[in-house]
Design a protein that fits this description.
The complex is a heterodimer of chains A (233) and B (317).
Chain A (H helix, E strand, L loop, with lengths): L3 H12 L4 H15 L4 H14 L1 H5 L4 H9 L2 H11 L5 H17 L8 H19 L6 H20 L6 H12 L6 H6 L2 H18 L7 H16 L1
Helix pairs in contact in A: 1-2, 6-8, 6-13, 7-9, 7-12, 8-9, 9-12
Chain B lengths: L3 H22 L5 H17 L4 H17 L16 H11 L4 H20 L9 H21 L5 H13 L5 H14 L2 H10 L7 H19 L2 H18 L6 H16 L6 H10 L7 H24 L4
Helix pairs in contact in B: 1-2, 1-7, 2-3, 5-6, 9-10, 9-11, 10-11, 10-12, 10-14, 11-12, 12-14
The chains are: A mainly alpha (233), B mainly alpha (317).
């Protein structure tokens, strides 16, 4: 039970805003020592784990391309595109993205989205532009955070419908350890009700974003609509 | 066969390039430590597989010390050559929607490559196909951009390091937290939390048991940062012995919906850094936890939804 101290260290560190990397090291040290691992053994285990998980950091290989494209106006183009679209709102944009992300993830195309490759260069600027235009008064931080959230939610509650995803294989392995018959197809079908619930719940949330109007928003939105159609022409 | 070694060599080369352009071009206060940080990460990618566990542990600690020292960071805005807003608008009009193509080419190549390498054996190790294809997509797309924009050879590195500097410590957080999860597992964190749940009295009510199982899965995921780490623990503590063997729940439903309840936890925790903290840094949000805040109402509603779905659909009565 002493290992729970590691969680206390982690939470306390994050709450008092020590650098999170240092907090993680301190928490790992606490967990290891509380479990009675000798210090050098703990160091070696942490080193092995750090090295084995390099692939997590390797996804940042895409940032030179994203940087180059942003330098040539990718984010601005995403905004211009939104300003030129009639009737686009933050809620409608995010609902469409949620549905697309769930459907593509459900057939295994999880790589079509993603925070580095899709949200930062394209979806987030689109959400910012849509929020400016629809007169709902959501500030740009809120619009960007919701874009990131919608990508995650669409992925999590879509991917488990696909048979060959890591979590399905893990469940199959664990269940067979208990002598239970585990059909990947049955596991993936049980993900469907939750996927529908996610579409309804998060879809409703993002559509409710459009109901908030700031005072005089209709006039502002109409003005924005006019100026944007001019500039897009 | 091509495998992760090639991806690591490429990532090592990229971070080494970041270190070199930083050391060469930056004269500000934070330039030197930032170059050192990218250099150390390059070292980890290039040599990590050869120097042994102990040395990797020391290297990880040195990296954290440098990253947490407060001496690293982005260059002052006026000196990093960032284009003005009007210049970017003009550039966006000039290149038009074609700007989306190289950006969309990355996932397209990543996807096509994964399918190809898995169906045609012998080129790339099947287990590494996804990352190798992503790396391939990144390289192809970079070359397209360099030719199209007629950039200098070092332009991708300078633009890349601009993004990397903006991300700062967040770039290392996912890898470090994954390592922490492994230490937690080795230290018996899962069973400790499992024991805690034994103290909760459900009074024999099926709904309470289902709620405890799903909430426990989410809670353990919040602590471990990964539903895949929480699943075996909760399935062993409650799923198999109680919900399946005693209450006769459908095993596939108990497993699948339990896992999805865990995903609700993933949406709520800074431990899942690549989903929650990295985007906040990528999007320059004022609030480090802004993405979690945006997800929280959906995550909590989905946890309740999963409890009721399992309760009503998972048990034949």
């Amino acid at each position: 039970m002493l290992v729970l101290l590691a969680v206390v260290v982690l939470v306390a560190g994050l709450v008092v805003r020590v650098n999170p990397l240092a907090v993680v090291l301190a928490s790992a040290a606490t967990a290891g020592l509380a479990a009675g691992l000798p210090f050098l053994d703990l160091l070696a285990r942490f080193g092995a784990a750090f090295n084995a998980n390099k692939f997590v950091t390797a996804v940042f290989l895409v940032i030179p391309t994203i940087g180059l494209l942003e330098r040539h106006g990718l984010q601005e183009r995403a905004k211009q595109l939104m300003r030129g679209l009639r009737g686009i709102t933050l809620g409608r944009l995010l609902l469409a993205y949620l549905l697309a992300r769930q459907l593509t993830s459900a057939v295994g195309l999880t790589q079509l989205g993603g925070q580095v490759t899709m949200v930062r260069p394209m979806l987030a600027p689109m959400a910012e532009a849509a929020a400016e235009k629809d007169g709902s008064g959501h500030d740009s931080d809120r619009a960007k955070a919701l874009a990131a959230a919608t990508d995650n939610i669409g992925l999590f509650f879509g991917e488990d419908i696909f048979l060959a995803i890591g979590s399905i294989l893990l469940m199959k392995g664990v269940m067979e350890g208990y002598g239970m018959k585990a059909e990947p197809f049955a596991l993936s079908m049980w993900a469907v009700p939750t996927a529908i619930a996610a579409l309804l719940i998060h879809g409703t949330r993002v559509m409710l974003l459009d109901r908030r109007k700031r005072p005089g928003a209709d006039a502002a939105a109409a003005a924005a609509e006019n100026s944007s159609t001019d500039s897009a022409a | 066969m091509i495998g992760l070694e090639l991806v690591y060599a490429l990532a090592g080369a990229m971070f080494l390039g970041f270190a070199l352009v930083t050391a060469w071009h930056r004269r500000d206060r934070k330039g030197r430590a930032t170059a050192l940080l990218w250099g150390l990460i390059a070292l980890s990618f290039l040599l990590g597989d050869y120097i042994g566990d102990m040395a990797n542990g020391l290297l990880a600690i040195v990296i954290v010390v440098v990253a947490a020292s407060g001496r690293t960071g982005a260059a002052p805005p006026e000196s990093d050559g960032t284009a003005s807003a009007t210049a970017l608008e003009a550039s966006a009009r000039r290149y038009g929607n074609r700007l989306f193509l190289p950006a969309l080419a990355i996932p397209a190549i990543a996807l096509g490559g994964t399918v190809l390498f898995k169906s045609v054996p012998g080129i790339v190790k099947a287990s590494d196909a996804t990352l190798v294809s992503l790396a391939l997509g990144a390289v192809v797309s970079t070359v397209i951009c360099m030719v199209w924009f007629r950039t200098k050879a070092q332009a991708p590195l300078r633009e890349g390091v601009r993004l990397a500097d903006g991300l700062g410590w967040a770039i290392l957080m996912p890898q470090l937290l994954a390592s922490l999860g492994i230490i937690y597992a080795a230290a018996g964190m899962g069973s400790a939390v499992g024991h805690l749940l034994d103290y909760v009295d459900t009074g024999g009510s099926l709904l309470a048991q289902v709620a405890l199982y799903c909430t426990g899965m989410a809670l353990l995921t919040v602590l471990m940062g990964n539903a895949l780490a929480a699943f075996p623990v909760m399935f062993a503590a409650m799923g198999a012995p109680l919900l399946v063997n005693v209450q006769h729940g459908d095993p596939a439903a108990v497993a699948a919906i339990g896992m999805l309840a865990g995903f609700c936890g993933t949406l709520l925790t800074p431990m899942a850094a690549n989903f929650n903290l990295v985007p906040a840094a990528l999007l320059n949000l004022r609030d480090t936890y802004g993405v979690i805040r945006a997800q929280a109402p959906t995550a909590l509603a989905m946890l309740v939804a999963n409890i009721f779905l399992l309760y009503f659909l998972g048990f034949s009565r």
